[in-house]
Specification:
The chain is built from 20 helices and 14 strands. By secondary structure, the protein is of the alpha+beta class. The strands form four sheets. Strands 1, 2, 3, 4, 5, 8 and 12 form a seven-stranded mixed beta sheet that branches. A three-stranded antiparallel beta sheet has the order 10-9-11. Strands 6-7 form a two-stranded antiparallel sheet. The longest helix has 16 residues, at about 430-445.
Length: about 475
């Protein structure tokens, strides 16, 4: 079955970078942190890469060569910064970077061929949409454990208080082979003025009580929705806004060890959540990543949506550019259920002959909690990424300045730390992109009355069975 699925994935890879909606030249200096699949589809983009642009910047001038592969210039820029801070590293090493955009699955095909063919690959990156393939799935055999690189990973993970979901995703047989730097645990991002009008307060701690933050269910959230509706407001922009919360709150994978289809209760709940939004007129019924969705972030003349669910990158690289005069009128609180959305992980080739240098870079990117570590620089907007972003280390977030003008001066890190802690990656598989798309399609048809619930579930199961030859 693995070969069948791998074949399907090779022609069905959705390849957008959600954070910042940026699908531009991979050499662009302001590429936003990687997110998950922007197109929200599964198996609907069957293009294969042709003449994909590849760039090869390099940093340092040493005789020892480290070959780094990535799909944006984000990690290469980090290498440049590390050499700036540690010039002796650049005197010893030259880091040659191969950057291939993800469009059409090009990056995956390129790195797969390089790893399998024994090409010079020492370090490489993978984003949330396909990290499981490289950390635990078909291509995981090429990944070195961080321990094998010489990193005291258990001690440093504990000292840094790394978000648990990132460890779950980056572990193979209990050993860490990949960690991220950016954390993408989600929060509820809501309009303060609407909250005050409806609930009499915009205080995040009070709003958390009203919506049932951390309860693991949506009961209080629906009570809040009724109050919002009575005042003429919409709860969310559309069904897509609830998808990432439900999908990533799951604890059971789509397929069990015998390849039977499993629908986790959190994912199954999405069917009724989506239908409730439509039947009770609680949303504008927008899809994600279109003008109607952006308009509900504040710039639209008739924007009256109460909240969005997402990580810090959704604020920094999407909402901030769409909010118009609502900048400052947003707040962040813990959501009813924990989830994450997006992220990038860093891996090393088990056959690298530059383990010492690779370990030094990886440790600085993923585990260093000092004020010269990448994560502190990233969280405090000292890397030129144009925003204060959340990172994997709760220790770093705890000592960083997370105040955002967009959120009225609120220190949003205080709410994203529990968001990162409550997220889970235990239900992920390397096939989720396509399976998610089948489920979302079935859910939309059920919500809009095109199929009843049983028929929607059966359509989903039939699509998965057919696509993966189960």
């Amino acid at each position: 079955m693995k070969k069948v699925i791998a074949s399907v994935l090779s022609v069905a890879m959705v390849a957008a970078i959600a954070a910042g909606c940026n699908k531009t030249d991979p050499t662009t200096s302001d590429v936003a942190p990687s997110g998950d699949d922007q197109q929200q589809g599964g198996g609907d983009d069957e293009s294969t890469p042709t003449d994909t642009e590849e760039t090869q910047p390099q940093y340092g001038s040493g005789s020892e060569v480290i070959n780094l592969w990535s799909f944006t210039n984000e990690i290469p820029n980090m290498v440049a910064k590390y050499i700036e801070l540690n010039p002796e590293f650049g005197e010893k090493y030259t880091v040659k970077c191969t950057i291939v955009a993800t469009d059409g699955g090009a990056y995956q095909q390129a790195i797969d061929q390089a790893l399998a063919g024994g090409a010079d690959v020492d370090m490489y990156a993978a984003e949330a949409a396909f990290i499981l393939k490289y950390a635990q799935g078909d291509m995981s055999e090429y990944a070195a454990t961080y321990k094998d690189l010489g990193i005291d990973v258990d001690t440093k993970v504990a000292e840094a208080d790394i978000a648990p979901y990132t460890i779950d995703i980056g572990s193979r047989d209990g050993e860490i082979v990949a960690l991220g730097y950016q954390a993408t645990g989600g929060a509820m991002i809501y309009r303060a003025s609407i909250a005050k009008d409806v609930f009499g307060t915009d205080d995040p701690d009070e709003i958390e009580k009203i919506v049932g933050a951390g309860t693991g269910n949506w009961d209080k959230f629906w009570d809040a929705a009724a109050q919002l509706k009575a005042k003429g407001y919409k709860l969310v922009a559309g069904g897509d806004d609830m998808w990432n919360v439900c999908e990533k709150a799951a604890t059971k994978a789509w397929l069990d060890k015998d390849n039977n289809i499993v629908i986790d209760p959190q994912r199954e709940a999405y069917l009724d959540i989506y239908k409730k939004l439509i039947d009770e007129d609680l949303s504008k019924d927008t899809g994600s990543w279109n003008e109607a969705w952006y308009a509900e972030m504040g710039a639209g003349a008739e924007a009256n949506t109460f909240c969005f669910f997402g990580p810090a990158w959704l604020i920094n690289y999407v909402m901030a550019g769409q909010a118009g005069d609502t900048v400052g009128d947003w707040r962040v609180c813990t959501p009813p259920v924990g989830f994450f959305w997006g992220g990038t992980w860093v891996l090393a080739n088990k056959d690298t002959d530059q383990a010492e240098g690779v370990a030094e870079l990886i440790e600085w990117i993923t585990l260093d909690t000092s004020e010269n570590g990448l994560q502190y620089l990233w969280a405090n907007d000292k890397m030129g990424n144009g925003a204060k972003d959340t990172v994997a280390s709760a220790v770093v977030m705890g000592k960083s300045d997370g105040t955002l003008d967009f959120c009225g001066g609120q220190n949003v890190f205080e709410k994203f730390i529990p968001g990162n802690a409550n997220a889970t990656g235990k239900a992920m598989t390397q096939y989720d992109e396509d399976i998610n798309g089948f489920f979302k399609d079935a859910a939309s048809k059920y919500a809009h009355g095109e199929l009843d619930k049983d028929a929607a579930i059966q359509q989903f199961k039939d699509n998965v069975t057919s696509a993966f030859a189960l």
